[in-house]
């Protein structure tokens, strides 16, 4: 067999069994795609991730400010020590 005839065999139209459309429609109309519980869990997860990401950002910002304040304080103390040593 060549490729073309094999493709025709594989892709030939086949009628679905009796009642197939009815079963599909029953299932589609009877079950919601995302039940309420799943939606609630997904929303909670998104909120937790957003708050967690914001918290990390704020923590890093606070750390940076603290290090800057410590560097300034260290420079001031060193300056005061030099002034005392000179006298």
**Element-by-element helix/strand order:** HHH
Shape: elongated
Per DSSP, the total helix count is 3
- Distance between the terminal alpha carbons, to the nearest Å? 104 Å
How many beta strands in the DSSP annotation?
0
Description of the structure:
The protein has 87 residues and is mainly α. It has a domain at 57-87. It is 80% helix and 0% strand. It has helices spanning 3-10, 20-30, 36-86. The protein starts with a helix and ends with a helix.
Salient structural properties:
0% strand, 3 helices, mainly alpha, elongated, 80% helix, 87 residues
State the gist of this model:
With 87 residues, the protein is mostly helical. Helices cover 80% and strands 0% of the residues.
Topology:
Elements: H1 3-10, H2 20-30, H3 36-86
